[in-house]
Amino acid sequence: MKPFICIISILFVSSCTTPISVKANSTELTSHQISTIAKSDWIHGSENCKTNQESTFDVYKHDEQSFIIRQNKCLTFEAPFSYILVGAQQILVLDTGALSDNPEFSLYAELEKIIGKSQLAVKKLLVVHSHSHSDHYQGDVYFNGRKNVEVVKKSASDVRSFFSFSDWPQEEKTIDLGGRKIVVIPTPGHQEEAISIYDHHTKWLMTGDTLYPGYIYVKNWQAYKDSIDRLTHFTKNNAVTAIMGAHIEKQKSPNSYFPIGSIYQPNEANLDLTVESLQLLNKELKHHNKPREIILDDFIIKPMSSLQKMLSNTARWFTQ
Ligand SMILES: [Zn+2]
Ligand SMILES: [Zn+2]
């Protein structure tokens, strides 16, 4: 990525951490949640990153086939999460993170450690992206060109074509990893080609930057409203144990967020959100046909300004 695009992305587009002034204009609050994920204390950076010795990747092993990996906040303030779902024939990698340009940042090498080279040798590895902001695909470089690996290209047309969507965004697509069915749900709004992933095995709903404990930037308000409505409807027909996105920007205490670009985030909120939180957002969005900031207990919905949209479109022109 060219430097100026990187700057644009960090300031306005991909980071989802642009400064905002929080206005207490919506006051329905969810009760403080109890996490369904056993790991709640992630590697969260340091006051002095120069001396920080923690590993590049913080790995949570949920079971033998399900992993959540976070990148070290001292190495990237985005500290995005990736999800690894292992089936009998295929392994799904959702997002490859914000790190590249150093062999020590290889997510593929990390998978060799946690899943094992023998499994990687015999199973197809499918890399997909929650959306095409750079903090979710920079690690593709460690997967490109490898045997048994397919990296789904990140543009909107490539995503639709790969999953054979004919009625985007209304349609859902199911893929089978081998005894493990995964549902791909279009969730545009934060970005045009955003998808969410539902895993029938863990019953996780993985939402990328569409929903997570932090500042959620919305580019297309109506598309986002429709996406949240579809996700809510989905949870009525499918058991969901956790809704998990790609970042944590919120503190444990209510309505408290970390400053933009933080490389040290003690006392972070839990990664997982509840179905009730999603339902509450959906209810709130139905009241607002026009974009406006919505503050709930677990996250803040922030419509992009015209300038932010223009810069986002410019960045897309260069990267897609
Ligand atoms: Zn994003
Ligand atoms: Zn992001």
Give a written overview of the molecule.
By secondary structure, the protein is of the alpha/beta class. It has helices at residues 3-13, 107-114, 117-122, 156-162, 221-237, 275-285, 306-319, and strands at residues 57-63, 66-71, 81-86, 90-94, 124-128, 149-151, 173-176, 181-186, 195-199, 204-208, 215-218, 242-245, 272-273, 294-295, 300-303. It has a single domain, classed as Ribonuclease Z/Hydroxyacylglutathione hydrolase-like (Metallo-beta-lactamase, Chain A), CATH 3.60.15. Helices cover 23% and strands 21% of the residues. Strand 14 (294-295) and strand 15 form a beta hairpin. The protein is globular, with a radius of gyration of 18 Å.
Runs in which pLDDT lies below 50 for 5 or more consecutive residues are 1-32
Determine and state the CATH class. Answer: Alpha Beta
Known CATH architecture: 4-Layer Sandwich
> Averaging pLDDT over every residue, what do you get?
90
Task: Tell me the CATH topology.
Answer: Metallo-beta-lactamase, Chain A
**Rg from C-alpha positions?**
18 Å
CATH H-level superfamily: Ribonuclease Z/Hydroxyacylglutathione hydrolase-like
Bound molecules: zinc ion
Total number of beta strands: 15
Question: What's the helix-strand series?
Answer: HEEEEHHEEHEEEEEHEEHEEH
Helical fraction equals 10-25%
Beta-strand content estimate: 15-25%
Question: Strands of the largest sheet, in order across it?
Answer: 1-2-3-4-5-6
Q: What structural class results from the helix and strand content?
A: alpha/beta
Sketch the major β-sheet.
Answer: 6 strands, mixed
The shape, in one word, is globular
Per DSSP, the total helix count is 7
Number of domains: 1
| Distance between the ends | 11 Å
